[in-house]
Amino acid sequence: MAVLEVQGLTHLYGAKTARETAAVQDVDLRIEPGELLGVIGHTGSGKSTLIQHFNALLTPTRGQVLLDGADVNRDKQSRREARFRVGLCFQYPEYQLFEETVYKDISFGPANMQLPKDEIDRRVRTAAAFVGLDESLLEKSPFDLSGGEKRRAAIAGVMAMEPEILVLDEPTAGLDPRGRERILDMILRYRRETGSTVVLVSHSMEDIARVATRALVMNRSRAVMQGTVGEVFARGEELLQMGLDVPASTRIFLELRQRGVPVQTDVYTAAQGVDAFLRLLGKEARA
Amino acid sequence: MDTFISLQNVSYTYESEEPSAPAALRNVNLQVRRGEFLAVLGHNGSGKSTLAKLLNAILVPTEGKVIVQWMNTADEEKVYDIRRRVGMVFQNPDNQIVATIVEDDVAFGPENLGLPPEQIRNRVDEALKSVDMYDFRRAEPHKLSGGQKQRVAVAGIIAMRTDCIIFDESTAMIDPKGRREVLQTMRRLNRDMGITIVCITHFMEEAVQADRVVVMDDGAVAAVGTPHEVFADEALLRRTGLELPAAAALAQGIRAAGIPLPFVLTVEECVDALEQAARKAGVV
Ligand SMILES: Nc1ncnc2c1ncn2[C@@H]1O[C@H](COP(=O)(O)OP(=O)(O)O)[C@@H](O)[C@H]1O
Ligand SMILES: Nc1ncnc2c1ncn2[C@@H]1O[C@H](COP(=O)(O)OP(=O)(O)O)[C@@H](O)[C@H]1O
Ligand SMILES: [Mg+2]
Ligand SMILES: [Mg+2]
């Protein structure tokens, strides 16, 4: 059974006013336990609005969101539960660090869950270690951290709630290659070690290609494609027409195909590209 | 190409609470050539923004000197002239526009120059056209996308008849479509108007289109060269935390399997090389 299911979700901002905006329209989506769903789309396509329904931060104008089959907006209790079971990390989360110390910031979520003090302490330290923040940083002000450290502290704050579903909105935006690599590795490791489900919103097709198992493409408030990462990037032409990027490897193989080279086009990482090209030349792909 | 900005033995140390803090830049020697497209790479904290701020006298060197054309950035009387020639576009599109109408924002600089109204009008229109934002001249900036806001910021600089524009990670916070728009704008200004571009970026696709690439590492220049020279240096990439552009990584993997391929950097180069290899192997 899907751990999270979205049925006919529509969200209007400023409903019935002159400024009414349909941010999300008629979206159906099933997220299976343990998968890593990549969400792709232009700015303004509705990604952030969509994912804020997963933990009941936003209420649907129409449709519903089911967590283990139960409507998250059933009542106050179910909304509260969703807030903790689905951990949401906003875009540029470092701007939302506000406590005096890093420790207090990371403990904000678990403290809200009203856990015992020693359990909160365990979670804060585990999460900080997990994201690679040294113990010595915990008593510092979040403003004294570097950009990359702030980002990791904010993610640790969500991980400390030990959510079953971790939702990250553009967690690598604005980082350098090392910082990006580090965050992606962290997310993969979190999923592997806790068996959690992960939803990753990203502009970077290379990031999605590298870590996601399935992908959802949003375009003008609608879910226009869903499938395995291979299935979605195999429709690279359509993605390009929507003005979205596709991974460089995908672009290379689509162009080769256009030039009459009989290659497969469901390629989206460099390693797959190597194998596909060697296969074309009749060489054995590496194991 | 002649030198437009010259950095001579430049070091810079921020005044901070910790006296032991290392210098942000150490003994940098570098020339920005007139009319070139120069990309600056390097991990966070390597000194890129400090370097950028030294180029237009936002900072002045603790040691050494920075000369813009004939002007020393340490000469306070020249600061205004230097800023008119070397403009800067920052990372966050939301803190660069001050006016509530696009064209008023672009007019801000020329108005300060005390130009007559019709000259201001001409410059504003011309600047907005050159970044492809003329149709938005009456728009409210907060309603624009990130890429559009950055292009308005660029127009504000062009309206000053600037010779050189520094982009400090100006595409980091905007989506791929906006990034393509800004990159196209940079290339057009460089090619058609001869404006010198210094582009600080983490996106290797932006760097491979530059004439030259500077790699910063821990406050020092680790390498300067053409994109081909820099990206062919595997040890350098590893040491400075840079990644190979995806097209280059793909070609390298195929080469490693014993198929002879030239060194490529861009998607186009990679497609050409693979097509040739496939034809040579007789599979097309
Ligand atoms: N709080 C809000 N009030 C009104 N409109 C909003 C609000 N947040 C987002 N929108 C609008 O909803 C649409 C979808 O935005 P968003 O969900 O943020 O997209 P994305 O995350 O894909 O960039 C956009 O047109 C945006 O302008
Ligand atoms: N205003 C400042 N005060 C003190 N140190 C600074 C300041 N700005 C940058 N630094 C330090 O200078 C070094 C270089 O920073 P910066 O030029 O911003 O690098 P980059 O742009 O490559 O990330 C870093 O160690 C950084 O912490
Ligand atoms: Mg968003
Ligand atoms: Mg910087």
Q: Which homologous superfamily in CATH is the superfamily of the largest domain in chain B?
A: P-loop containing nucleotide triphosphate hydrolases
Question: Can you tell me the CATH class of the largest domain in chain B?
Answer: Alpha Beta
Estimate what percentage of residues of chain A fall within beta strands: 15-25%
Classification by helices and strands of chain A: alpha/beta
Small-molecule binders: adenosine-5'-diphosphate, magnesium ion
CATH topology of the largest domain in chain B: Rossmann fold
Key words describing this protein structure:
heterodimer, A: 287 residues, alpha/beta, Rossmann fold, 3 domains, six-stranded mixed sheet, four-stranded antiparallel sheet, 11 helices, 10 strands, B: 284 residues, 20% strand, binds adenosine-5'-diphosphate, binds magnesium ion
Concise synopsis of the structure shown:
The complex is a heterodimer of chains A (287) and B (284). Chain A has 287 residues and is an alpha/beta fold. Chain A is built from eleven helices and ten strands.
Structure commentary:
The complex is a heterodimer of chains A (287) and B (284). With 287 residues, chain A is α/β, with parallel strands linked by helices. The mean pLDDT of chain A is 93. In chain A, helix 3 (102-112) packs across helix 4 (117-130) and helix 3 (102-112) runs parallel beside helix 5 (147-159). The longest helix of chain A has 18 residues, at 177-194. Chain A is built from 11 helices and 10 strands. Chain A folds into 3 domains: 1-89 and 164-235, Rossmann fold; 98-162, no CATH class; 247-287, no CATH class. Chain A has helices spanning 47-51, 76-85, 102-112, 117-130, 147-159, 177-194, 205-211, 229-233, 236-241, 248-258, 270-280, and strands at residues 4-13, 21-31, 36-40, 62-67, 70-71, 86-89, 165-169, 197-201, 214-219, 222-228. By secondary structure, chain B is α/β, with parallel strands linked by helices. Chain B has 2 domains: 3-243, Rossmann fold; 244-284, no CATH class. Helix content of chain B is 39%, strand content 20%. Chain B has helices spanning 48-55, 79-85, 102-112, 117-130, 146-158, 176-193, 204-207, 227-231, 234-240, 246-256, 267-280; strands at residues 3-12, 25-33, 37-41, 63-68, 71-72, 86-89, 164-168, 196-200, 212-217, 220-225. In chain B, the strands form 2 sheets. Chain B has a 6-stranded mixed β-sheet with strand order 6-7-8-3-9-10, sandwiched between helices. In chain B, strand 7, helix 6 (176-193) and strand 8 (196-200) form a beta-alpha-beta unit. The interface between A and B is large, with 42 and 39 residues. The complex binds adenosine-5'-diphosphate (ADP) (2 copies) and magnesium ion (MG) (2 copies).
